[in-house]
């Protein structure tokens, strides 16, 4: 029934202006805003997908990763994002540890997590072409 339907994802933020600046200026994504829909942001990503960031007065940050960015070189990507002021998460659990560069290297893809201004969790994941 839905196999031919175009789908999109969305998440809430507490401040669309901060979100627009973060996703547009810091992450370098194309972001548009629809003031006729209460200021909803559309984040345009490679491949034509669109992700909505909508204002929510009682926003609570997601406790899981809402958006993953595939990158060719995670160390370079982490360093470039850190240079733009992004702070990466550190984890130190028995089977879930990040290294001194905030990168998880414990099996599977190399991954590093960070948060947007609303506290939602994002990641960069290294892929080998």
Automatic annotation (TrEMBL):
Coiled coil: none annotated. Residues 5-127 form the VOC domain. Pfam families: Glyoxalase (PF00903). It comes from the Bacteria. This is VOC family protein. It comes from Mucilaginibacter segetis.
């Amino acid at each position: 029934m839905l196999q031919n339907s175009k789908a999109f994802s969305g998440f809430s933020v507490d401040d669309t202006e901060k979100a627009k600046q973060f996703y547009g200026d810091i992450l370098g994504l194309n972001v548009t805003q629809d003031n006729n829909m209460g200021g909803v942001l559309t984040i345009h990503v490679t491949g034509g997908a669109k992700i909505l960031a909508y204002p929510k007065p009682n926003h609570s940050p997601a406790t899981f990763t809402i958006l993953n960015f595939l990158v060719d070189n995670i160390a370079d990507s982490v360093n470039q994002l850190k240079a733009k002021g992004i702070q990466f998460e550190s984890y130190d659990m028995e089977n879930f540890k990040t290294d001194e560069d905030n990168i998880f290297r414990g099996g599977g893809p190399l991954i590093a997590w960070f948060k947007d201004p609303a506290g939602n969790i994002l990641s960069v994941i290294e892929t080998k072409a």
